[in-house]
Amino acid sequence: MKCLRLHIFVSFLVACSTTHGASMPYEAWRLGFSAPHYMEVWIETTDVVDIKGQVYRRAMSGNAAIQNSPGNLRKPKGWPEKPGWGKGKYVTGADLPKKIYVRWQSLVEPQTYQMGIDIPESAREIMRKEENAYCAADGKWITGYREALVVGLAPGGVAKLWALGPCLTPVEITRVHAEIDPRGPYEGESGGKHRPLSAVSKAYVEKFGVPYGSW
């Protein structure tokens, strides 16, 4: 009888762990960042809080990947239907995310933004769900997960979040409008000086401007 009660108790703990997402079906999830073409971004810092309450500081920093919109080769207007994985890395040791904090410089404006992205449980369910997918590149069917989150950062402080997986259709999670960081770049430690915009992006913006409202 004691063994039976112990078995039931252990089964209950396992069920609760699965229900509340205390673990994930892969070793680590990936966090990436991208920006519309020419709309260069410098990420000062990204901090992640996972569902266990653990904080992972500077999970990502540096340049965001530049990404084209579908049908608009080398034009920045709008978000792509199928975003890439962006520039990033795996958040090793972390459980699935609860919140992601980002502070970045939008170099075409220039302006410094900060935001916190709340990750809903529905997004974590998407990341846990196993799916079959056909990979056209090698003509094979695979079983995989949407183990990556990519954040698109655009001028005006607009951000969009997707969940992605190898050969799986991207799923849009949320759209966030960040606030301006009144301290300016580098928390006010650079005397208001942002990182320089590349000559190519500067020339584009001077000629065509920034397509605010398209993101």
From TrEMBL:
Residues 1-22 form the signal peptide. It comes from the Bacteria. Keywords: Signal. It holds the Pfam family DUF2931. This is DUF2931 domain-containing protein. It comes from Pseudomonas glycinae.
